[in-house]
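ARCHIVE CARD
Drawer: 12
Card no.: 0347
Subject: one protein chain, sequence and derived structure
Cross-reference: see card 0346
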Amino acid sequence: MRRGKVRRRALCNPKPMNNKKAVILLSGGLDSATCCAIAKSEGYELYALSFSYGQRHSIELAAARRVAGSLGVKQHRVAQIDIHAFGESSLTDNSLNVPKDRVARSGNDIPNTYVPARNTIFLSYALGWAEILGSGDIFIGVNAIDYSGYPDCRPEYIRAFELMANLATKAAVEGRKMTIHAPLLSMSKADIIRTGIRLGVDYSLTHSCYDPSEEGRACGHCDSCILRKNGFRDAHVIDPTVYR
């Protein structure tokens, strides 16, 4: 009898196939949640990194915690940094209005929701943590198809950062190559949502709005809300977001 019990416990709690680690940039939004789920599906042990940087939509940090819990993240850390000190972005400067109901989006039409050098700062923190963890893999949920035109969401930017990472770290010099994974880069928002649904992402836990109400309800009119709504519509999936 004792042997049988031990055998059943072993089957219910199998040892992980590997212990490869990845640092995931997790904002709490739709894209980063899907990116985290993709990393999990590829067998990575997840180390999620979020940022409190003075953003007006800091409610996203609560969403990041929910997503991290739902996806079985090994560690979730929130770094405190003060991008707010520099201003020049409606996401960090409350004197600026978040653009609503924008139509034109081109390479030269970058809205004031762009936060100067944000992804470079975030990836640099992720790079440092990855090196400490002994990981060579960083996941970021940037997208260059359905996005607001930010220059740090383009494939050439990701390639350039990866090149820099492999020049600037002790780990890379000693032979552990650093890889920046951007699995959503060429996907439409609808395809991102379909992928997340297939991987079991609970999108009701996520938050996308740049300008939520005090109660946390999404505005429905900022770039991020519009992209989210259109994505769910095109994917033929109900958007669980409560819009004001």
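Annotation on reverse: Helices lie at 2-12, 30-41, 60-70, 118-133, 155-168, 170-173, 189-198, 223-235. Confidence is low (pLDDT under 50) at residues 1-17.
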